[in-house]
Every structure is written in C-alpha cells, then in structure tokens.
Fold this protein.
Amino acid sequence: MVHAEALTTGLSSTDAAARLSRDGPNALPETQAPTWYRLLLEVLREPMIGLLMAGALLYALMGEPADGALLLVCVVFVVTLTVVQERRTERALEALGGLASPRALVLRDGIERRIAARELVVGDLVLLNEGDRVPADALLRQSTLLKVDESLLTGESVPVRKRASLEASMLQRPGGDDHPGLYSGTLVTSGHGLCEVIAIGAATELASISRSLGSVTPEATPLQRETRRVVRVLAIAGLLACVGVGVTYALTRGADVAAWREGGLAGIAMAMSMIPEEFPVVLTVFLALGAWRIGRHQVLTRRMPAIEALGSATVLCVDKTGTLTENRMALTRLRCAQQEHELAVLDELPPDALHLLRVGMSASRLVGHDPMDRAVGEAAERFGARVGHEAAELMHEEPHSPQRPVLIRHWCEVSTQERWQAAKGAPEAIARLCAMGLDDWTRIEGEVAGLAEQGLRVLAVAEQRGEAAETGWRWRGLLAFVDPLRAEVPRAVAECQRAGVRVVMITGDYPATARAIARAAGFAADIEVMTGAELAVLDAATLAERIARVNVFARVLPEQKLRIIQALKARGDVVAMTGDGVNDAPALKAAHIGIAMGRRGTDVAREAAALVLLDDSFASIVTAMRLGRRIYDNICKASVFILAVHVPIAGLSMLPVFDSRWPLLLLPLHIVFLELIIDPACALIFEAEREESGVMRRPPRASGSRLFSRGIVAIALLQGVSMLIVCVGVFLLALPAHGAEVARALTFATLVVASCLTSAP
C-alpha cells in the first residue's frame, strides 16, 4: 500500500543512491558478440584452408616460394571473406536497450528532477506526460485521462486507458483497459499521471522479450544445409583420396624424397579437385547480387541466405497492425438518424451527419497523440466541420472514470457566452448518459454489433446545450473507425496463394477485427480463427493438427507468436514472418525468413529480421519471393556446372597415379586458379539468367528436396566425362612433339576453354 503523503515527496537522494548501488542501472542486459579471433579459429578449421596451407608448405620445401606465396594469398582471401561475413552478427539486444526514454522526470526529496532513465530505481515516482516513453515498469498512482500505446508489446493499434490505484498490486499482462500497470518502452498518447517504479532493467516486461530473443538461434536455410552436406561428403572423400593418391604415387616412383614430395602435391591436388570449396563462394556471390537486385525494389537484406529461402517459403505469417494495415486510425463511417454514411465515397455530408462530426470534433483533442482524435480531426478538416469552431472557447474537461468511461468537454461561445458540452465514449456509456430507453438501446446495440463485426472500432457522441447538468444530454450518433488495409495487400495475397504460399495472420487484436481484415485482404473463404486463450490450452500434438487449418490467430501474446512459428516449422513448413513491433522480434528471429517493416518498424524488429521492407509495402514481399525462386533456380544451374567441371579436374589429377610414365597434369596452383577464379567467373553467367516462365505459378519446392537429383547428377557427369576425354586427347597428341611442360600447359588451356563453353547458355 502506497501512502498518499509519499506521493508528494518521492525517494530521498540517499535512498535512491543506495538502491542504485544494490540493484544496478535501469538497463537491459547486453550480450557478448563473438570475437574476431574466435571466428578466425573456426574458419581455419575448414579442410580446404588446411589443404592450401599444406600445399604452400610443400612448395616452400621444394624451393618454389613464389608458388607457395600465391597459395597463401588465396588463404588470406578466403579467410577474410568468411570472417567479414560472420562479423555481421545480431544487434537486436542493443536496439532493445535504446528503446527506453533517455531521460525521466522524477520526484526526489519532494523536488521534480530530470535524470537519466538508467538511474531510475525501484520505488521512484515518475511523472508522465503526453508523448513520453515509460522508462520502467510501474504502477499508476495518480492519473488524468492517461492513455498508453502498448502496441509494441501487444500488437493492438488502439491505446489503452489506465486507471490509477494506491493498492500494492502486481503488474498483469499488457493490454486491456482500466488497470494501473505501465510498461517500459510504451508511449503515453494522452493525459498525464504519476507512477511508482516496481521493476527496472532485466526485470521488466521488455526484458522478457529480450531474453526470449536472445535464446532463439537462427536456423540454417535448406540450401545452406544441402550445400554443407554436399561439401562435407566430398571433403571426406577428398581427404581419403589425398592420402591414397599421395602414397600410391610415391610408392610407384621409388619412394625417395622427391617422389614423396611430388606424391604430396598429387594428393593435395586430388583432394582439392574433389572438395568443392567454390560452392560457398558462388553461393555468396549469387546471394550478394540477389541482395542488390531486391534492394532496387526497396527490400534491404540483412542476412543473405534468407533470399533464396524466401523463394521456398510455404507459409507467410503476417502481423495485422502495420503490415496488412497502415497502423493508423481513420474515421470511415458516421451513423445517425438510422442512416449510415460511408465517408470514402462522399464529397460532402448531409446536415445531420455534419453536425454529428462537429460534435465528435468538439469532444476530441485534435492536437495530441490519440489516433482516434487525430482521425476525427482529419475528417473534420476534409468536410469543413471545423468552420466556426474557433469562435468557441474550451472551458474544461471531465476525464474518463471507471464509473463513467466518457470524456466530456465544456465549451463557451465567445460571442454569445452560450455554454454547451460535447461527450464521446463507449456506446453503452453514452446511452446511460442520455438516459436512453430499452427499445432505443436495443436498436443501437445491434448497429454497434454490426459495425464491430466488420472490424470497426465504435464510439458514440452526445451533446448538451446550456449549463452542465446530469440530464438534458442528446444522442447524436456513432463514429466508426478502421485501421485501413494497405491498398496493395489483396493483390499480393492473391499472388502468394497462386504460388502455393499459405498466408496466416497473427495479431493481438480482437477476433472480429482480425476476421474482417482477413476477409478484406482476400484470405481463404473459410476463415478459421484461433485466439491466444485457445492456443494456450493446446498441447503440441493438437496444435500441430489444428495449425494446418487455422489462418487467423487473434489476441495472441508475444511468446505465443513464437510458439506458432515453431509449430509450423515442426510440420516441415518453410516459414516467413512479417512484423514491426518489439513483440514480433523473437518470432522474426525464429522464422526461416524474418521480414520487418522499415518505416514503421521498431529498431528491435529490424535488427531481428533477415529482410527489411524500406517502403513498408506488402507487395515488395512478393517481388522478393519471385527473385528468391529465380536465384535458387540459377544456383542449381551453376552447381551442376561446377560438378561437371570437377570431373575432368579429378580425372586429370588421378591419371598420373596409375601410369608412372605420365607427369603430374595439374598442380595445386592450376586447381586454385580454376576453382577460385575461372569457376566463379563462369558461374556468374548463370546468375544473370532470366527467371523461368511461370515461376510464381508453381508450388514451393519440397523442404527435403536435394540440390542434386539423380537426373541432374547424370547430366553433369556426362558433361564432365566429355571434357575429360577431350583434355586427355589433347595431352596425348601434344606430349610426343612438345614434351611434358607444353603438353601440361595445352591440357590446362583446353580445360579452361571447355569450362567456359560448358557455362555458355
């Protein structure tokens, strides 16, 4: 229980300093980023790096330091490229730390002081005003019309009303009206108040999201897993071949020191010919160019592997507020005298509707952060309802109260001194204010229910002429608000459905609102809605069964979003997730492809996501999806080419082992040149190929599909064997007339030309 007299003094400076020393600063815990030397050690464990360094050492022992130095340059290049990519680590927790207001107005020693928010302690009294960020979790002790936007924690687009309490209660979950809880990072949209800090730093609701975000590890994309599998299998085979070829070569040539050195080079060349280390290089180049391409369509790539993964997405989970909708309120309908007026299709309003709008404007604070008040002001400006309003003077306001959730504003005409009042609030509260009869209320209740089923927020308006009194209020009508659907959404949803991608809405809003938005967006006709309360009681097996049919989740808590993503992934879906709030960050990070809004999104969402929509356009997701499918197709073509080229490289490395009269046909330097320069350069031709026809009219590829099917491998082997036969033929023709050195050079040149011809479209 908080004593009323304590609300005028706050903590003493001495007590505050002691608590700060005991509890630490009001800041979120920071994570330690991987150090560069740890990343370097991980890269140096790669087998290809070891082979290159072993080759450089052998060249040095053979008295050819220039060749060894060239191999070391290749090592530095590969290592630097890998470390630079790995250093692009997540900064989501740092962004969370920047959300708190940097300054806070507190009462200490009975004096108002402006201090750094990180210096707040439990027990501090904080004064909040319109536009302030709440600096810590707190309980509201005094309030005047205080409303708070909690959308970054709950996803709800409308601010919630707060009710002051002197009881020593605990915080409940964010969302809902008339409870005293305030949460770090949320925004005061109207009113002012005094609150008592009860949790700081790591103990806040915002920090709980930080912890769940930090515990989520991004999952490798299907292409990354497949590439790693192929490279791992061939690397093991290459290392075994390295030992076998080296030993066989040396034993068949006398087993002296020179034979063992040449055998070592032959073994290294054989291993290098079988380890497809250019796969990661080509993959990096393709994805980097893909990031540049989709960047031209206002999509920023933060993690490049997500580009191709987006092309294989089977489910696209979207947040309603700020993703499907514009995250703003608009006055869309007026209802008065049993007539409904759709503002979007009207150029001017009939007299009764115009009067309703004027009364609604008089009951609203047109300058402020409340989105409904701003929407009323915009509509009043458009239809001329503000004409003459400047001739009236605002006398005072009567704030909302739990007993009467109505805002009443008292006005006086400057010229005539006539007094009048305008009221706005929940329809049932305005009906009580007007002493409405049962029959009239039953009719209006039906009108309100009909508007709510369409996803509209409804307020009622009344006015009173003359001196303020408990009676004499007259009902004027209903104001219906909507968070407008983005114009491009229906077309983008339809294209996703044609491409075999299921669109699922996840929102903190009410089921009726979510269903109406889903219907307007063009979701499937049989929209099945599941609420967060229903989700909470389902076990994993039941959720996995239900989630295949549900396409709208409403009243969902942040941790439940994460559970939905994990359930979809457990079914084998490749999941893309869009969002813009702090509450979306864990799910964005857990999804195969997290997509954040660039303009309206929070720093946390952008840092947790793999892709960022710079223009917040839902249609840009479809464009990125089309490019992702094209990139994957072209990666497959380039991979087939690389596999084909490896066949003659391996063959030319192996043939001298079985015939002691043949010299080494390919040295490690030749293979490095082919694999780190020629192969990627030729593969770029595939990157520039246009997309296949109907790329967005085919279903996503199966999550378990392999990069190399049997048919593709057979074609690659046929091409590779053909190149090998041509190269061996050139060597056999050139060897008698020109000697081993010239024959080796001609064979190498033939292989380079054959590689270029194979890559030609």
Residues 303 and 610 are 5 Å apart (CA to CA). DSSP finds 26 helices and 22 strands in the chain.
